[in-house]
């Protein structure tokens, strides 16, 4: 199993959880996917960013806040 395949599956799960948490809104799949990538990258604190510019400190901080919101 490749690292990207595993990461993509984990990102899908996070995006789905965000979608469910927000009441399954239509037309926001891209927003949930991007947020999920940021959360995944923050959780894994990797230098290998998955298909996003999440190295940017602002995006990482937003991901941290989103994760805290999900956990509360």
What's the arrangement of secondary structure elements?
Layout lengths: L2 H19 L7 H16 L12 H15 L1
Structure description:
It contains three helices and no strands. The chain has 72 residues and is mainly α. The longest helix is centred in the N-terminal third of the chain and has 19 residues.
Oligomeric nature of the chains = single chain
How would you spell out the order of helices and strands?
Answer: HHH
Major sheet summary line: none
Q: Please, what is the average pLDDT?
A: 79
Provide the helix percentage: 55-70%
Which properties best describe this structure?
single chain, 72 residues, mainly alpha, 69% helix, globular
Briefly characterize the structure.
The chain has 3 helices and no strands. The protein is mainly α and 72 residues long. The chain has helices spanning 3-21, 29-44, 57-71.
